[in-house]
Specification:
alpha/beta, Rossmann fold, eight-stranded mixed beta sheet, five-stranded antiparallel beta sheet, globular, binds S-adenosyl-L-homocysteine
Length: about 375
């Protein structure tokens, strides 16, 4: 009897037949295999699952984002209808909190059509339950391209980190790719394969020209498709997008491919399909690719600065005034987790994108002012 997860055997058969897999292919199979993929089979998010996300930590996260959406919608000229799109909505908590807070402007709710891009059937059912009584009609899609054209606000929290990456390593004047192969006892292992010049060109030129010998450069090919879909939507209609995730904004190259299981880091090659596989988001690369494709971009700024700039402290005071003692403790510790620099406040970052012509969204006006002051 073979040991290991059911997906491990399937991956081995695949590698024996076709050769090593890129990390991107390995991630895609581990996360989305129709039978055993991580997101297909279970409920990964929350204290009972493998990882906890910001909307699951505090209702204020989704509420402040809901108010951000209302502000941006007003600045678009209050288009009706408009599409409120979320990529990878998890349990639907962010959207539920956002819609509740947005009730302050009933015209916003009346105009909004909810579109959820979600690959997991299990999570679609959870989202359906969470959002059933929120008001607007719900629509599910496999990808952003399927959603009909029209004015749109797009939210993506911890979505981009789950998009597959490839890893390239510079050795001498050649480029190699880290791939998943089999060792001499037929176990999954990382190997390096030399790549064609064409594949090496996936590494952005400034990195290709400056990277140190042996350094790993991570590339996320699906970001190009995501940006192309956003640009496409922005050609005839106003579009704004908010991308929140863990990542780095300094334009460096790093090895960040990781597995998380039951709230701990794990070996990405052990028990494939049973751990979440992600990599940090290269926000500087994302921002410059968005700007190159014609979108306006603001940030990234830390999640702490973003939420405080949107009024987290004021909202916290209002909620505390109406809360019992236990709720007060939970509210304060949730807020602390979201914004403290040694928790999620700096590792998690926020980037806003918009079609040309839209005004700077909050709270990036402050960041733009600071940049102008420094200049
Ligand atoms: N935004 C949620 C969940 C983050 S987990 C939160 O903050 O709690 C990542 C989410 O993206 C899950 O809902 C997962 O099923 C979905 N997902 C991952 N890759 C996807 C893909 N390629 N297409 C659509 N959904 C995807």
């Amino acid at each position: 009897m073979p040991s290991g997860s059911p997906l491990q055997e399937k991956l081995k058969v695949c590698i024996r037949a076709q050769g090593p897999l890129t990390i991107a292919d390995y991630m895609t199979i581990c996360l989305h295999d129709p039978e055993h993929g991580y997101y297909r089979s279970g409920n990964p998010i929350g204290a009972e699952g493998d990882f906890v996300t910001a909307p699951e930590i505090s209702q204020m996260f989704g509420e402040l984002i809901g108010l951000w959406c209302v502000h941006v919608w007003l600045s678009m000229g209050s288009p009706a209808p408009f599409r409120l799109i979320e990529l990878g909505p998890g349990r639907g908590t962010l959207m539920a909190d956002a819609l509740r807070a947005a009730k302050v402007v009933p015209e916003f709710l009346a105009a909004s059509e909810i579109h959820l891009v979600e690959s997991s059937d299990t999570l679609r059912s959870t989202q359906q339950r969470t959002l059933a009584r929120c008001g607007p009609r719900l629509n599910w899609h496999q990808n952003l391209m399927e959603i009909p054209a029209g004015s749109a606000i797009v939210l993506a929290n911890e979505f981009v980190d789950a998009l597959p990456i490839r890893q390239f390593v510079s050795r001498g004047d050649r480029w190699f790719e880290r791939q998943v192969g089999l060792d001499n006892v037929e176990q999954l292992c990382m190997i390096e394969e030399e790549v064609s010049d064409q594949d090496a060109e996936l590494v952005p030129e400034p990195i290709r020209l400056s990277v140190a010998e042996g350094a790993v450069a991570e590339v996320r090919p699906e970001v190009r498709d995501l940006l192309a879909a956003l640009v496409d939507r922005s050609l005839d209609y106003p579009l704004a997008a908010l991308i929140l995730d863990y990542g780095y904004g300094d334009g460096s190259t790093r090895h960040t491919f990781q597995a998380v299981r039951r709230h701990r880091y794990a070996d990405p090659l052990i028990d494939p399909g049973e751990a979440d596989l992600t990599a940090l988001v290269d926000f500087a690369g994302l921002r410059s690719a968005a700007a190159d494709s014609g979108l306006n971009a603001w940030g990234p700024i830390g999640q702490g600065a973003f939420l405080i700039g949107l009024g987290l402290n004021e909202r916290l005071q209002r909620l505390l005034a109406a809360a019992n003692q236990q709720q007060q403790l939970d509210l304060v510790s949730g807020a602390e987790r979201l914004v403290a620099p040694d928790q999620m406040g700096e590792l998690f970052k926020v980037l806003a994108l918009a079609s040309p012509g839209l005004s700077t969204p909050p709270p990036f006006e402050d960041a733009s002012k600071d940049e102008a002051d420094e200049a």
